[in-house]
Amino acid sequence: MLNLRENMVAAPWARWQNWADVVLGIILFISPWYTATWGNGTSSWNAWILGVVIVLVSLWALATPESPIPQWINTILGIWVFISPWVLNYTRLAGEAWSAWIIGALTIIFSAWVALQMQSPRRATVT
After folding, report:
1. Per the UniProt record, which residue ranges are transmembrane (predicted)?
2. Number of domains composing the chain
3. Is residue 124 over pLDDT 50?
4. How confident is the model over 11-47, as pLDDT tens digits?
């Protein structure tokens, strides 16, 4: 029996986790409007900027599925989104804070999932 590393590189534009991150970035971008917090500059600008950056990095990840770099960048962005209500002091804005916590956590999960899959490929047994 011969153990070979299975190729974990997905086809371009094929990873559902990256598409989920695109959707999460869009939701983050529009969150100041659906939570009616657009008047708070700090939380709104954070959501607008991070939403656009997450979408762009996710599209980069979809276009270059062999590179773990955009996965790790999105993981870091997700961490920032998650902690931003405390760091930028907008936890009193419940809708925006919960949006940040949920979107941040999901972005971390999806991006780290793919990055870790890429680092530890499965082994296939060939007879």
Report:
1. 20-39, 45-63, 72-91, 97-116
2. 1
3. no
4. 888 999 999 999 999 999 999 999 888 788 899 999 9
Inside any domain, residue 79: yes
Q: Tokens 């970035």 belong to which residue?
A: 25
* Residue 60 located in a structural domain: yes
48: which 2 tokens? 């607008």
Distance CA 56, CA 90 (A): 25
Phi and psi torsions of 57, nearest 5°:
-65, -40
| Rounded Cα–Cα distance for residues 58 and 64 (Å) | 10
State phi, psi for 69 to the nearest 5 degrees: -60, -50
3-state secondary structure 8-41: CCCCCCCCHHHHHHHHHHHHHHHHHHHCCCCCCH
pLDDT at 2: 40
Q: 55 is written with which tokens? A: 């979408």
- pLDDT higher than 60, residue 104: yes
